[in-house]
Amino acid sequence: MRAREPGADGEESMIAQGNRERPVHSLGHGDHVCLAFADDSEQRRVVTAYVSDGLKRGERVMYFADRHKPAAVLDWLRSTQMDPDAALSSGQLQVVTASDGWLMSGRFDATAMVATLRQEMASAAASGFKGFRVSGEMSWVLRETAGADELAAYESMVNSVFEGQPASAVCQYDARLFHPAQLQTYDHCHRGTVELSPLYEDELLRIVPTFEAGERTMHVIGTVDYRTTDALTAVLDATLDWAGDVRVDMSALEFIDLAGLRALAHTAERYEPGRHMRVVELAPLLCQVIAVAGLDQQDALVVTSPGASA
Fold first, then answer.
1. Is the domain of 178 the same as that of 29?
2. SS3 sequence, the chain?
């Protein structure tokens, strides 16, 4: 069952989304991106890669910790054979808590923090560093913190501060803590997002996680047939342990057989009451096949074709 003709509107939207997503190793000067994650190992992978790359490039790096203690972040670096002690001693690396950084005055002040970033960029250049990069855990905003309502304005201002400058930032949002509407708001304040590791990848099929509209999403890219149905099933089974609804974006799907469609339905029927699997951008013919096969006879599975509201 062919899913979509090349060049369809859904495929173009997938390409646009892909252009917004950036592998962490490709980040460079002028980038201000959002990392939305729901897995500690994914956060650790991105953070260690981003910080390590900055140190190797001769940039000054600042890290603001919140859920994790600064010592834990330094241990992440050591686990990758990167010795942060020399960088700490030279001033190339600084790892502090959010309370000692963004909230040093006892409240969050967007304008003052932007001024601090400008000062840090100038100081890094004056000290001979090749650039400046910063990353921080944003979970502090969920506490009763004075000035927390200024965060979205701050994130938007950082885009213009870093544009064209030898500076970059990765802002970390734990999707297990933030409401989808909050994630969507903060994500839109950034110029891009960090690309997460594929949940599955071979020459026929890629399943890539992301967050869209603040909702956990997986893009199914390529072919689902007798060679890859087991892989799709395994990834879908893993969503049973996720929280909230799950979007399955089929805009880059090339082919799927009936067994693949059944895998979607069989996983959805095991969701806890109130949870939904939203299969979006599925070709109209395939939506009809699901209906004819009786796979849509459950509230947990919601299937929509291109242009339809999910």
1. yes
2. CECCCCCCHHHHHHHHHHHHEECHHHCCCCCEEEEEECCHHHHHHHHHHHHHHHHHCCCEEEEEECCCCHHHHHHHHHHCCCCHHHHHHHCCEEEEEHHHCCCCCCCCCHHHHHHHHHHHHHHHHHCCCCCEEEEEEHHHHHCCCCCHHHHHHHHHHHHHHHCCCCEEEEEEEECCCCCHHHHHHHHCCCCEEECCCCCEECCCEEEEEEEECCEEEEEEEEEECCCCHHHHHHHHHHHHHCCCCEEEECCCEEEECHHHHHHHHHHHCCCCCCCCEEEECCCHHHHHHHHHCCCCCCCCEEECCCCCCC
Q: Tell me the pLDDT tens digit for each residue of 120-129.
A: 999 999 999 9
pTM (2 decimals)?
Answer: 0.83
Instruction: Assess if residue 41 is contained within a domain.
Output: yes
- Tell whether 3 is covered by a domain: no
| Residue-number span of the structural domain to which 224 is assigned | 9-15+198-303
Give per-residue pLDDT as tens, 211-264.
887 889 999 999 999 999 999 999 999 999 988 899 999 999 999 999 999 999
* CATH number for 143: 3.40.50.300
